[in-house]
Amino acid sequence: MKKLLFIALVTTVIVTGCSQPKGQLVGIYGSAKPEEMPYGMVFVQRGSFNMGANDQSITWAMQPTQKTVSIDAFWMDQTEITNGEYRQFVYWVRDSIVLTALARNEVEFGLDPEESEYYTLRYDPYDESKDPDTVLNWRARIPWNARWEYEMDDEEKGVFRAVNSVYFNGADKLYGKQLNSHKMIYYYKYVAYDQAARPGNSFDPNKASYNERATVTVDSSFFRDGKIVDTVIEKPLSVRGDLISTKIINIYPDTMCWMTEFAYSFNEPAMLNYFSHPSYGQFPVVGITWEQAEAFCHWRTKIHGDVRNLPRIQEYRLPTDAEWEYAARGGRHNALYPWGGPYVRDYKGCFMANFKPMRGNYTEDGYLIPSQVGSFDPNDWGLFDMSGNVAEWTSTAYDNTLPYFTLDMNPSYEYNAKSTDPKIMKRKVIKGGSWKDVGAYLQCGVTDWEYQDKCRPSIGFRCVRSYIGN
């Protein structure tokens, strides 16, 4: 028996060795598991379609011609991002601000970071000589209802300690700084790919360096007198790190947009609580600028990456206008609306989406304002509310000549407008129409726009993620 096992082992080694001939090009290959379906998303398979309006312009403007484009596969949120989902972002930012304040307080008043409850040390397993990074300990308890007193220890080092008495929102008043909607600040970095693509900014492999005249223009944000200051820095391009822009964004929705959007309208009773009230948890979040939506996508990627042992993924992002339109059509290439028909009613006479029917009869479709996500039937790919409810931000910069200069494969035109750019450069494409738009804006191929730093009670968003695989 042992002899047979030995022969089998030798045979296996010989066969394995023969499959990798020495001195030959055999390549280095790996294996990867198929991507798991992200929670709350649907798969949009690759394909081609005729992009552009199927009907004449509602304003009798010059109509862009249709063109056939091809789109790669991607994941897309089944519904618009809801108040409840965006509230998770707000709470994460709130907790990170408080944890940072608690951790800094302990260090500033003499406590070693290694002994801090609110700090944790993260070691690099590949480099024992490298100092560990000090990061926030998200498992630490935040004493929201503690009252803080300043005490002196034996070494005359001051430290704040929680006292067992109730004090509303004690943790966020640690430095006398009340946390409110105006201080929900999210800081992040991103790579300015548009600067890498500038003429003359290519990497010279012969010199192993960038062109001596290569320059980049990147965003930079910082605080001055308690306010966010956005500025633009132009500097030489010498290493890849020079392509990184920094952004500081106040991420809390503008709950007053209902007041500023409509003059001579009594919206105060319900609309001021639209984001915060539990009854609206499953409704699409509104009052969000394009810049806030971008920050949300970055955060969504971050919280996935912060969980150990999860596979690396492509970044969450806003869809391009081509991806959005392709997904909205649901495989029906020339249909006016996501449901396939040429009308906004079904055969029973019921409306197919939440919009503004006829002359101001908002309630004819069953709703006065945005409806709960998924209230109407999905399209053939399982995507809800691709027409009506709220219009949606895309990553595409608006230009009425887009069909004439964008590529016919994954067409995209992105421009990260700087704070110093004119307003016309800050226009972003929105798609789908909303609860306050007439039916013509619900068509898949109709394109509208809004400034990236403006928010509306009729504009929301959903995320996509590129698909890796065959």
Key attributes of the depicted protein:
4-stranded antiparallel sheet; formylglycine-generating oxidase activity; Sulfatase_Mod_Factor_Kinase; 4-stranded mixed sheet; globular; SUMF1/EgtB/PvdO family nonheme iron enzyme; single chain; 20 strands; SUMF_dom; 470 residues; alpha+beta
In short:
With 470 residues, this protein is α+β, with helices and mostly antiparallel strands. 18% of the residues lie in helices and 22% in strands. The chain has helices spanning 2-18, 83-108, 193-196, 257-261, 268-271, 290-305, 321-329, 402-405, and strands at 41-44, 47-51, 67-71, 74-77, 119-122, 133-136, 146-152, 158-166, 185-191, 203-204, 209-210, 215-224, 227-236, 244-250, 316-317, 391-397, 427-431, 447-451, 459-460, 464-466.
Structure, described:
By secondary structure, the protein is of the alpha+beta class. 18% of the residues lie in helices and 22% in strands. It contains eight helices and 20 strands. Strands 1-4-20-15 form a four-stranded antiparallel sheet. The protein has a four-stranded mixed sheet with strand order 18-17-16-19. Strand 12 (215-224) and strand 13 form a beta hairpin. It is globular, with a radius of gyration of 27 Å. The two termini are 46 Å apart. 32% of the residues are buried. Residues 13-17 and 162-170 have low confidence and may be disordered. This is SUMF1/EgtB/PvdO family nonheme iron enzyme. Residues 40-94, 277-465 form the Sulfatase-modifying factor enzyme-like domain. It comes from Candidatus Aphodosoma intestinipullorum. GO terms for molecular function: formylglycine-generating oxidase activity. Pfam families: FGE-sulfatase.
